[in-house]
Amino acid sequence: MDFNLSKEQELLRDGLGKFLATRYDLEKSRAAAKTGPGWQPDIWSGFANELGILGAALPEDVGGIGGGPVEIMVIAEALGHALVVEPYVDTVVVAGGLLQRAGGPVATSLLEKIVEGNAVVALAAAEASSGENWQDVSTIAERGGDGWVLRGSKIVAMSAPLATHLLVTARTDDGMSLFVVELDGATAGIKTHPYRTVDDRRAADIVFDGLTLPGEALLGEEGQAWPSIATSRDEGAAAVCSEAVGCMRKVLSDTVEYAKQRHQFGQPIGSFQALQHRMVDMYMELEQAVAAVYLTVLKLDSEPEIRARAVSAAKATVGRAARFIGQQAVQLHGGMGMTEELAIGHYFKRLTAAQFEFGSTDYHVGRYAELTT
């Protein structure tokens, strides 16, 4: 089986890598995440207008390039390597996939805005009462005249504080449905509690208390949203796995370089066999994670059960690798490993958080076991 990238995919990878190396400063991005708006809008604009990566995996009829899972893998890994906090996975992969499958004029218009860099879309699906089971929805949407009235609450809606639009799951008479909420000017009936996560991302808990929506806010067919939600959750998990691989490549590289430079007892600590063994173990975990991601990317367009099994295998494998590599890197750097000044500490936090996005490691181990029995 050929795992080599095409020339176009190599150009995409190299162009994005050069952009991030010259334009994406880690110190500046952390400052924006901690004290500013939570991201850098000029970088997002560059993604859209200079690189075109926001449309790389979206259809040509909305201004995209028409790529697929491999393009997403390439982009997400590069973003992870540079520790980018801008909401690519949430907006392009998850929301973009949901909007494509929903179809219709509202979804098409929003996809065009995403490609142009003029819209940031976040999914609000998790609820406190259901935990990691997104299919268990307590938020309700009732008919109200020609529109809908939304009541309920969502938790940990990633990128919601940055978003121009929300995609919200809600229970209707016919089952789970998906609604789009335009946040510009939406004040009555919605309350948000934004916060910064441990890895310097932005999220929010949201309460809907009689939020009125127009009839066209319903995306797709009423009561038929779950298959699309399940697909997008798996696509998001695969993209986060690719992002984590990019993080782990950087962490391993920095750790090896540090071991060459740090001297103890008159010689580099990298010359000590015990530490060499630990770095080899880190490398082996990374290679297993890479293989699992490749398998998942090849299976994303398969039947739901095959796709879900491959995604859960990758999420469990990458989760284990992220934990091991992150912890070993911090230990090998000593006390410096968790300081704000050193990049390793920031990467460690991102790798820790990635283990829980779109289903925790334990969740996916359990799902894999169910799908293979």
UniProtKB/TrEMBL annotation:
Lineage start: Bacteria, Bacillati, Actinomycetota, Actinomycetes, Mycobacteriales
Similarity comment text for this entry: Belongs to the acyl-CoA dehydrogenase family.
All residue ranges annotated as the Acyl-CoA dehydrogenase/oxidase C-terminal domain in the record: 226-368
Residue ranges annotated for the Acyl-CoA dehydrogenase/oxidase N-terminal domain, each copy included: 6-94
Cofactor(s) this protein requires: FAD
Stated name of the protein: Acyl-CoA dehydrogenase
InterPro entries linked to this entry: Acyl-CoA_Oxase/DH_mid-dom, Acyl-CoA_Oxase/DH_mid-dom_sf, AcylCo_DH-like_C, AcylCo_DH/oxidase_C, AcylCoA_DH/ox_N, AcylCoA_DH/ox_N_sf, AcylCoA_DH/oxidase_NM_dom_sf
Acyl-CoA oxidase/dehydrogenase middle domain: residues covered: 122-209
Pfam families: Acyl-CoA_dh_1 (PF00441), Acyl-CoA_dh_M (PF02770), Acyl-CoA_dh_N (PF02771)
Domain of life: Bacteria
Keywords, sorted A to Z: FAD, Flavoprotein, Oxidoreductase
Keyword Hydrolase set for record: no
Annotated GO MF terms: acyl-CoA dehydrogenase activity; flavin adenine dinucleotide binding
